[in-house]
Backbone:
């Protein structure tokens, strides 16, 4: 086990001076959420909005200071700037949406693709749905909200780091004609993220507010599995137009899918429907169909819960191979029967959004 601890990290960070104030960043209270686990270090560097231009320089200096400690394996430093919130226009002190800058003002619809548990193919589904929506002629983007296990760089076949022209707003990377932002672009693929909830929330807000998304018809959010801090941040602070739940057919997966669905319902986010992934397996040699995880469970659950069943996607070698290669099946084999299933589901989602915006208004952003 490494011999250093949080005190050693803070001591290293005290050597980093903020030139604007003439004091070190720890004394100034700029360092928050320090975590140390098995040689990996994470922390948040909070700066005043007025110092945003020099913030990245400070972040790099802080990261290097900690990396210099013996036995440190990795350092994850996130930069965040918080604006003070004033009284509401009404004078009541209640939070007001009108005075807040929207997280993603140019995006017409944001749809979360979620699952109650990991391992059900949610990210692969989200990627292919985004590409299918783009194939409909829609201006589309993907936000990889899975901070702990980002998949979009590999699924979309994109590498590199986002750039910034003004030191404040990041330019998203692009692949297959759509914009993509992921924590996987900001940290090495083998670096574990050991952040606590507040750090994850801050990173998600930055990837929404501080990215030049531009004007979009739809943004697909590849959600992390489960119903924790990251999911609640997205559900409560982002004006989601709807959520799509991905599950495999067996009972154990559907139990968790039901939890995810109920979470969105509790925060008044419309559930657009359920997708049954890995619905069946067809042998590529003999064509025999095998229902490895049972079959039809998601359809039955959708009927029971009163939501739309969007479709079933098989467990298929072509989907796996194209995803691993960064050439998802919707874009690399557009006429493949499985690609057509994704396209059909995407069309059904967009139809719901067009028809249901007035009936199911998205929650407004409230920052307290």
Residues:
């Amino acid at each position: 086990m490494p011999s250093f601890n949080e005190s050693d990290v803070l001591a290293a960070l005290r050597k980093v001076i903020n030139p604007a104030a003439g004091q070190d960043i720890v004394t100034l209270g700029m360092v928050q959420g320090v975590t140390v686990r098995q040689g990996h270090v994470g922390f948040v560097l909070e700066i005043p909005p007025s110092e945003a231009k020099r913030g990245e320089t400070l972040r790099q200096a802080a990261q290097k200071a900690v990396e210099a400690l013996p036995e440190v394996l990795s350092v994850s430093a996130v930069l965040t700037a918080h604006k003070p919130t004033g009284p509401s226009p009404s004078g009541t002190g209640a939070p007001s949406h009108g005075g807040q800058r929207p997280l993603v003002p140019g995006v017409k619809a944001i749809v979360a693709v979620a699952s109650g548990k990991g391992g059900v193919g949610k990210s692969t589904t989200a990627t292919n749905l985004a590409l299918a929506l783009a194939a409909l002629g829609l201006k589309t983007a993907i936000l990889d909200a899975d901070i702990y296990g980002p998949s979009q760089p590999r699924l979309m076949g994109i590498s590199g780091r986002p750039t910034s022209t003004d030191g404040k707003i990041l330019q998203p990377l692009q692949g297959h004609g759509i914009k993509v932002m992921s924590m996987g672009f900001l940290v090495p693929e083998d670096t574990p993220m050991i952040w606590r909830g507040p750090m994850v929330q801050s990173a998600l807000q930055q990837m929404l507010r501080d990215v030049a998304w531009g004007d979009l018809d739809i943004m697909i959010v590849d959600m992390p599995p489960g119903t924790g801090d990251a999911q609640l941040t997205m559900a409560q602070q982002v004006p989601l137009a709807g959520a799509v739940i991905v599950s495999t057919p067996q009972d154990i997966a559907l139990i968790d899918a039901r939890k995810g669905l109920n979470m969105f319902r509790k925060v008044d986010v419309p559930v657009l429907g359920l997708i049954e992934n890995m619905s069946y397996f067809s042998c590529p040699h003999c064509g025999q169909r095998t229902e490895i995880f049972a079959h039809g469970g998601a359809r039955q659950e959708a009927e029971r819960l009163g939501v739309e069943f969007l479709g079933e996607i098989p467990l298929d070698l072509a989907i796996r191979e194209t995803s691993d290669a960064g050439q998802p099946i919707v874009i690399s084999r557009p006429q493949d029967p499985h690609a057509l299933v994704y396209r059909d589901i995407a069309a059904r989602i967009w139809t719901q959004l067009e028809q249901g915006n007035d009936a199911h208004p998205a929650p407004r952003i409230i920052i307290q």
Remarks:
- The radius of gyration is 22 Å.
- The chain has eleven helices and 17 strands.
